Amino acid sequence: MTSVTTVQEKVPTVSVRGASKRFAGVTALSDVSIDLWPGEVHALVGENGAGKSTLIKLITGVYQLDEGEVRYRGEVAHFRSPRESQLAGIQTIYQEVNLAPQLSVARNVFLGREPHRFGSIDLRRMNRESEEILKRYGIVADVKRPLGALGLGVQQMVAVARAVSADAGVVIMDEPTSSLEPREVDKLLEVVGLLKANGVAIVYVSHKLDEIFRACDTVTVLRDGKLVSTGPVAGLNRLQLISRMLGRDASDLETSRTQFGGGGEIADEKPVLQATRMQRKFVIDDISLVVRPGEVVGLAGLLGSGRSETAKALFGALPLDSGTVALNGEAYTRNTPASRIRSGVAMLPEDRKAEGVIPGMSIKDNICLASLDQLSKGGFVSRKKQGEIVDVFIKRLRIKASSPDQKVRELSGGNQQKVLLARLLCLHPKVMLLDEPTRGIDVGAKAEVQALIAELAEKGLGVVLISSEIEEVVEGSDTVLVLRDGAALGSLFGDEISEDAIMNMIAGAAAEAAEAAEAADSTEAPAS
Amino acid sequence: MTAATNAEAPSRRALPRIDADWVRDKGVYIALAVLVLYNVFFTAHFNEFSNAQLLMKQVAAVLIVSLGMLLVIGTGGIDLSVGATMAIAGSVLGLAVSPASAVSGGMGLNLTVAVILAILSGLVVGLFNGVIVGVVGVQPIVATLSLLVGGRGLALVLTSGGLVQLFVPGLDKLASGKVAGFPYVILIGLALVAIVAVLVRRTTFGYRLVAIGGNRKASVLAGLPVRRTVITVYALSGVLAAIAGIIATARLHSADPSYLGIGFELNAITAVVVGGSALSGGKVKVLGTLTGALLMQLLSSTLNSHNVPASATSMAQAAVIVAAVYIQRSSRSSE
Q1: What is the 3-state secondary structure of A168-225?
Q2: Residues B127-169: pLDDT tens digits?
Q3: Which domain holds residue A285?
Q4: Would the pLDDT of A347 be above 70?
Q5: Is A254's pLDDT higher than 50?
Q6: Chain B nearest CA to A424, separation (Å)
Q7: Is residue B29 part of a domain?
Q8: Closest residue of B to A421, CA-based?
Q9: pTM for this one?
Q10: Residues spanned by the domain of B236
Q11: Cβ separation of A317 and B221 shorter than 8 Å?
Q12: Residue A228: phi, psi to the nearest 5?
């Protein structure tokens, strides 16, 4: 790559100093400082809830800072809305293209700043200019067609072109490649290179290591709202970056393994849940998995590696292009959560608020939701049975609430999580799929939940455990399946399981992918 | 500190704290009570039993439609086709009971059979809505809008575009008959309120519909039969609208597809929202809806009996709606 020396100036385009933000007492971002320089691609990485989107929204004026300051082109900026920051030259491109799919490509490129002539939109000029802009970035598309008629990759590129044509000083890309084909990714990264050459400061949010090492100059890692590290990509190796993302420094990794999982003799048991070659475009690439009674199978990988998607696919909540899921050797013919629940597979969803609780309903009703059929007769819910089972679980899981009739939205995160676990346990499942069972809950509740998982495994349940905290997967699993970009890299068993082993597996695969990409680049270079 | 809270606790139980939540929960009852009190003191003839009967008779059809709307809104949907469904049911009823000699297409059927046919027509319309929304996945407002427009056309086609006069003793009895001083229509309305209340509070179906409206994604992941529940809710809305259509037809002594049920969809939505249910779903208040329907009816009759022009009456109703929505909004933001 050619280095751009002409655009290096003394002042960063955006400078964030000591940024902090709290929501209802919860710290989303705490004392974070970063600089975005012109002509620099700045990778922003971290797990869900690490504070990436909060940081972006503070820069773009969606949120207001509680503490700290944002400087734009050397001056303190007080953007009160995304529109103000856009007018100043900060453009954001979201993961899901957020343009107007029904409008023409040209209209989208000029959305909100259409050229006018005699008081009406100058269509001819708009079409001509947008065509020129797209051509400059090597995008071939009929600008008069509706945007929605184009492929996702082209749509993403139009979004980029739109951002650039607005004389952007900063372009923020939030996981721009998550739904793109490899060929389209190459194209997008080319455009990123062009932006860079034009002196634009670029923020690149991604979990894909090879893209970070290919396209980015600087990388900032966030975790739990705090800055873990920020510095040049060049000085980092993959293992270091992975360990920063997953929550440990490579230097102080422990290999010792404290266990809360099942343990026991499980190798000889017949599998209770078995997935064979599950495939789903862009999401899951040929994943097979076996869960035996009493076994805790951990899914390890970075965000976007297909962890949650694998759980959802096992649960029938994600349609598969091919592959099967079988319970006790019998393959499911219908892929729906209802069919899984009836046969004894239960899932704790990753996003407690959006996919788990019914916030306006009581604790009692939330707990009984999935097992209403067992608690009713002739369609009428038995309040007696309901009351009994709810009392049992409130005591067993130590749910702290003023009464079973309290609304779930009034509970703390940990207690909400326990309500959801109670909902699953009511079903007397054979297999539990637990996606982030301890995220966002306090230390005490976390230990209780982990103890519960161990207890369930001891009683012979099959458990699939997903956690963005690598130590939780290491400590809790009998088997770990390591994932990357939706594909399985390999499995670790028993004593093989360690944070080191998992990270090395991910890093090794990432290095291979990067080499492959570089090889492809070098063969293409002479042709162009 | 602890002493203070101890002293406070029992008194709080005896006398609920009056705050935003309390107003949201009880606002519609207070408003109705205030309006009734006003009428008791300032409106001539209000205290006569016949007046209350008239009010209840007028409100019966809207109330029944509102109950169906409440269930649909509870799942986060909306049913704009209820007025047209009333017209269809009215036309079906008219055709079924009229002899062929009097009306072209008349079937001269027994009244009971005719009523059943009319209710079935509502069921068909409701199932159609339910399938379009629940299975095909069209937005509720669009799916039911098509029948708001097309359904009335169908009703007109059934009666060949005209009004069908009905001279059926059984229908007259339905419209004005009484048991112990209570008109049939009121008893039917209250019975349906009771049925819907039991449905919502006691049955798996009711639990599920509230859950679906409260968090649809979570309901799918909890294995609830979301599709079936949604289809059932629209089917019930169709059936209830048909019952309301039969009652309205009986009161008019004619099936009038051009006018029967016009604007009822909006009146029903108003009753539901004013009654404190969330338009976004997940909060279903049956008694609130009953009170909301009564409040809106009493408001217009009060203004009417004080000779306030009709235009001002609709503005007063609009003010009530805005107030109801505002109360809901302000409490939501504090969550």
Answers
A1: CCEEEEECCCCCCCHHHHHHHHHHHHHHHHCCCEEEEECCCHHHHHHHCCEEEEEECC
A2: 999 999 999 999 999 999 999 999 999 999 998 888 888 888 8
A3: 262-344+429-528
A4: yes
A5: no
A6: 9
A7: no
A8: B222
A9: 0.76
A10: 55-262
A11: yes
A12: -85, -50
